[in-house]
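Anyone have tokens for Adenosylmethionine-8-amino-7-oxononanoate aminotransferase? Sequence:
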Amino acid sequence: MQENLSLAERDKKHLWHPLTQHKIASDALGIVKANGVKLYDENGKEYIDGISSWYTCVYGHCNEFITDRVATQMKNLDQVVFSGFTHKPAVELSEALMKILPEGQQKLFFNDNGSTATEIGIKMALQYHHNLGNDRKVMLAFEEGFHGDTFGAMSVSGLSVYNGAFEDHFISVERIPVPNGDNNQAVLDQLKQLIKTHNVAGFIYEPLVQGAAAMKMHDADGLNEILKVCKENDIVCVADEVMTGFGKTGKYFASDYIETKPDIVCMSKALTAGLLPMGLTSCSQKIYDAFYSDEIAKGLFHGHTYSANPLACAAALAGIELLTSEEMQSNIKRIENLHQAFAEKIKDHPKVINIRHLGIIFAFDLNVKMERYGNIRNQLFSYFMENGVYLRPLGSTIYITAPFITSDEEMQKIYDTIEGVFDKF
Ligand SMILES: *Cc1c(COP(=O)(O)O)cnc(C)c1O
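Reply: yep, here.
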């Protein structure tokens, strides 16, 4: 009996989906297969994965180079406690990451998703000052930032209507606007004032691109000035590269565009190439040294059961090998050039505003009347899916973060589908 029902129907009995109000949401779509840039649903329809399944599988789904490596690892060492033990996949991953991380990163702390990666970044910043005997308990963050859904991460994220039930339990956070080139001095003044009036421990930021804020991009020089002021005041700079990391901005990390380097870097999403969940928080020697002591309590007493899972490490290592290959780097350049040409083509269209792109990230806002704002997102989503392209608009923002291996023809199909909405909405 059950077998006659679709996955979408069986799903409804027991499953509770993320970020979903089930009373008004439409049914979840059953996906049965993924390969390269394509997703296949249970009705046999295929879709180009235009957002790399939330910026994870940038080398394509079920990439054989990666799945073979993980399969081999799986038959050799599946899981072992990372407190007191170590293993080759973790050691090799640490060595590979040190070659590509922004300058100054020295130590890696494993966790298992993007929220815990930033949670640990925040805890490192707070405990760094605690261990040094400084009374600094306030985190600084950008308005509209997004850093995850655990308590610390949620606290430093821009206040959203969805977090109402938890706000009384948030850690102390002060917010500044992102620098846009015109307001840089005003933001710096506000920052300096906050530093005078608050005991700021750390500053957490998504460098250059704020993903969940609808791919908003900000000014690199402005960010550099902010980081310089933070560094002068021993405020721990925590770069949340969970979205921007691993090639999406055209460099390995968005922080590579900025002269002043972070003290801490948070990674997840494309870290494991979309294969397995894992997060990592790296830090500089200076941060690590504040925890290195004869006093046990000065250590970082945080640990996840699956820390440094060997399979996830093997996936990450294979991913980094692909990322640093000439072939993948030229793919990234190729997509950058395609985006540039598409931006030129549509930038003067009356339906297109705030066009922006960096690396393989491309976004613009659809110029629609405010009263249509609320329901436009779902209509756009349905239109894209009907046309075989999985894009997930945020409000009236349409963005692309397709896998690096997307072919010219597949990218053209995404562009054509997007242009198709200009006449319809
Ligand atoms: C997705 C994301 C997170 C949270 O990662 P999860 O793995 O979903 O917990 C944190 N920061 C940024 C910038 C993200 O894009």
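The radius of gyration is 22 Å.
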